[in-house]
Amino acid sequence: MIKKVYSVLDKHQRSRMFILLILIVGGAVFETIGVSAVLPLVNAVTDPTIIDENAKYRFVRDLLGVQNYRTFILIMALGLVGIYIVKNVYLVLMTNAQNHFTTNNQRRLSVRLMKCYMNQSYLFHVEHNIAELERNVNQDVESFIGVLTSILQLFSEILVCGMISLFLLITDFVTTMLMVVLLFIFLLLFAKVFRKKLRNYGEQTREYSAAKNQFFLESFGGIKEIKASSKESFFVEKYDTAFKNFALAAQGQMLLSFIPRPIMESLSIGGLLLFMSIRIALGTDVEKFIPIMSVFAVAAIRMLPSFNRISGYLSNLMFNRAAADAVCRDIKEMERLNAESQDSEEKKTITNGDIVVKNVTFAYPAHPEKKIVNNVSFTIPYNKSVALVGPSGAGKTTLADIILGVLKPDDGDVMVGDTNVVEYPKSWHEHIGYIPQAIFLTDDSIRANVAFGIPNEEIDDEKVWKALEGAQIADFVRNQEDGIYSNIGERGVKISGGQRQRIGIARALYSDPDVIVLDEATSALDNETEKAVMDAIYHLSGKKTMIIIAHRLSTISECQLIYEVKDGKVAQVKYEDICQ
């Protein structure tokens, strides 16, 4: 697991981790000094003669130039306090560095995984659930960081316990060895007995986390339809069921993680008291035994929480392993695919011209035997308006997606001039404006939505107004109190359907593309609104190559060329034939 986690970290993260490990070693040294420094003081307090009889005590006393016993004890006590102050300041700084490391890595990994997903093909997103991707980017990365943190903390706590135990072994070998062996055996048994159960709980929480996220997104994504049919309780119950299962798995994990704590406390305290009683019963001098027991008491105060934390970190490792494995697998696989994609595409200058579809075939991977587009060839003339018509499910949108470059055909080419744009999708996208049926609008200003994906400081307002003029919506925007800075609400709820579509047209025009693709862009509009939107589109006739997918005849009445898509084939037809 450690090797797998380490392999996902980049060079910067690994170097930071190495520095942190050095700090952790320093923390362990301070912890050991803190425990060991108690013994000299207790010895001096319980047996004042040791100051004169022991060479080390005499050396320190002479070095300080102190002869008075009380003054010497006071200086030793203040020195011990000073050691603990320095130790705790160091531990605070180390903890802050560790927190910075974990939170910063969580951000970096989450962004890195999101970037991996965003750079995947459109087909990848067709086949994957948004709720699952959201879980992977957020909860799974958080779990991965939990594993990374647990590994670091395990190293820290084991190092601290090991160094303190080494000191205790020198102080009292038998008692220390028996206590360490007893606790070590318990931890091994705990890991062996509960490993599978904790991992199962981890897998269940991943599954139900995605389910509850999905039900939440679906519930608020379709709130109008839900309220119109009074189905609120149905969706709340689905969310509640998923959350209940999630909570049960999380509850099981918390219980198993808690169980070791009371057992280890009982073993430690009971064992220590038992050994002390046996020593006294065997005739050990109590006066000489008190300093040793004082050291063991201080060590127990420090080590008991460590053993509790060690069991907790082991639980976290087992519980979060499924999520950590998923993050490692996805990052490696996605980055490999992205690297292959980037290596295969260079920047390409595409000369405007006819769009020639040659022998294109496509089937979705889930149903490879069903050819949505089957050996299709046709031409879309430069600066002409072309319609794609046909029954629902005929493959019009799939064909448009291939032309757009978001789907790669299984066979065939899409030529523009002498360039096969299938091989250069990113270069081709610079020439395309896309207007879908459901315009994706963010909860932001008209300006930001038209210049979509461009930082505010880089938006060209002149181009925004030009695009709004081209979409025949500039007058509406001028009449708004804040003009292009007016907020349109989430998904554009503050404006009408026709205005949303025209903002979508303006967005497509902002970059002044050579090709505009409309995919059922007016199908949800009433006739009057549709006419206004299409007037804005046809206003561009002769200036842009336009590909219009539609069901309504009125939408394509002014198209210069019409292709019918049916049964995976494409054939040119006349407007009059369709009307019949």
Features:
580 residues, alpha/beta, ABC transporter transmembrane region fold, Rossmann fold, six-stranded mixed sheet, four-stranded antiparallel sheet, 10 strands, 9% strand, elongated
Task: Explain how this protein is built.
The chain has 580 residues and is α/β, with parallel strands linked by helices. The chain has two domains: 2-337, ABC transporter transmembrane region fold (Up-down Bundle); 355-579, P-loop containing nucleotide triphosphate hydrolases (Rossmann fold, 3-Layer(aba) Sandwich), CATH 3.40.50. 66% of the residues lie in helices and 9% in strands. The chain has 22 helices and ten strands. A six-stranded mixed beta sheet has the order 6-7-8-3-9-10, with helices on both faces. Helix 1 (2-8) runs parallel beside helix 14 (321-344), helix 6 packs antiparallel against helix 8 (130-171) and helix 8 (130-171) crosses helix 14. The longest helix is centred in the first third of the chain and has 50 residues, at 69-118. It starts with a helix and ends with a helix.
